[in-house]
Amino acid sequence: MLQVQWECMNPKYKIKKRNYKNSGVVVLLDLKIHRVYSFLDYIMGGCQIHFTVAIDFTASNGDPRNSCSLHYINPYQPNEYLKALVAVGEICQDYDSDKKFSALGFGARIPPKYEVSHDFAINFNPDNDECEGIQGVVESYQSCLPKIQLYGPTNVAPIITKVARVAADEERTKEASQYFILLILTDGVVTDMADTREAIVRASYLPMSIIIVGVGNADFTDMQILDGDDGILRSPRGEPVLRDIVQFVPFRDFKNASPTALAKCVLAEVPKQVVEYYSYKAFPPRCPQAHTPDSSLGSPQ
């Protein structure tokens, strides 16, 4: 093996001392090149983003027959959940390669037995919970709402765990092929906070991120705690998340904002979260490009 070395020379000694050779030698023994990939490297390398939408159907949202309800069934204009679903969903749709969303509900009594479920398909097809585009989710939501009874409690952990199981299967492929994003629309009151924290800590080790959209004007303190921006989120046992995977967006702050402002907030942390996960696992892009500029999530062409 060719050894590379450099002499350390002191110009003053070289002038003063006739027999001066050097003040030491720097020898390079080992060299490793570690490439840091960008979000675009992974996307252009074939990594697909898969979105799951989860909608809060708990009684705290109000009776859908009442105009004060966040789920109010109004034939003339969209309710608060539909406004948030369409605004945020259309942004996310651009990054989902097959434009199909898994669409789930939680906290309602569902037919035929009207037992409470915390992770049911809103199209009532347990074998295939996917909807065609965000419009397909809207149609399933509108069809589902009159058939269910809003109930409770607001247990979020089962939905996180359900998506995490799929992400865990993906992790075992040891490839940067699919990354999962869970989009939760809720009025903000979480009943199973301890279990939710535990589920998020577990999910932080998987190819998964969570975007929570707060609907309505409730107290979103719980959601901000889960976001972890003010400190590191920990499980009830004190175990910290491996990486920050939760982004909270209060939709009321963006009702009159431009779609660009909403998009920037909703997807602000996703590129970093994707890169952090694959860097931690040391998974390169499946088909690395010669060069792609480092970039945050921009509008797809």
Mean pLDDT: 89
Strand-pairing-aware structural class: alpha/beta
Instruction: Just name the CATH architecture.
Output: 3-Layer(aba) Sandwich
**Share of residues in strands:** 15-25%
Count of strand segments: 12
User: How many helix segments?
Assistant: 9
Assigned CATH class: Alpha Beta
Shape: elongated
Termini, distance in Å? 48 Å
Order of helices and strands: EHEHEHEEEEEHEHEHEHEHH
Helicity level: 25-40%
**Low-pLDDT segments, ≥5 res:** 290-296
User: How many distinct domains?
Assistant: 1
Query: In CATH terms, what is the fold-level topology?
Result: Rossmann fold
Organism: Bambusicola thoracicus (Chinese bamboo-partridge)
Domain VWFA: 50-270
GO molecular function: calcium-dependent phospholipid binding
Protein name: VWFA domain-containing protein
Characterise this structure:
The protein has 301 residues and is of the alpha/beta class. The chain has a single domain (39-281), classed as Rossmann fold, CATH 3.40.50. The chain has nine helices and twelve strands. Strands 3, 4, 7, 8, 10, 11 and 12 form a seven-stranded mixed sheet that branches. Helix 6 links the parallel strand 10 and strand 11. Helix 3 (80-93) runs antiparallel to helix 4, helix 3 (80-93) packs across helix 8 (259-266) and helix 5 runs parallel beside helix 6 (193-203). It is elongated, with a radius of gyration of 25 Å. The chain starts with a strand and ends in a 20-residue tail after the last helix. Mean pLDDT is 89; it is low at 290-296.
